[in-house]
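Researcher: Next sequence.
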Amino acid sequence: MGSQPGALSVRSRPITGALVGCVGASALAAVVAGFVGGFRGTGSVAIVSVVVLAYFVSGQIVESLALGFADVTGLAIVLASYAVRVGLLGIVLWWAVSHPGLTGWTRPVWVVVGALASVIGWLAGLVTGHARSRVAIYDQPYRAPAGWDE
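Model: Next structure:
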């Protein structure tokens, strides 16, 4: 009989997989951007990958705090957080592409590639982590109603 994973490891395995997937995909995109787009491409991918990673990590923090609420409050917190984070992410990405001080340092194509690589890596790692998680489920053994076995 093997040991059952604790509640913390069951919750952290998907997040760890997502973090590894996001960083791995971002690193791969940065290497490709370095060969194709030079320093500006690598810088663009690195900047946007950090922004997307901050978006996901902040979401996980809010969701872990919202799990403490047993009513609709937790759902409201998560949805409000999502709306705020999506809005901020859009503003930051728009600013990174259109700000005159940053246009010399970033390339819009590599900003998009970096964002997509980060998101795809995060989601792939999250799915892989959930697929590999082992959640202990305890069911009561079946008992036939009285009189059925006679």
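Model: The helical segments are 7-66, 72-98, 108-132. DSSP finds three helices and no strands in the chain.
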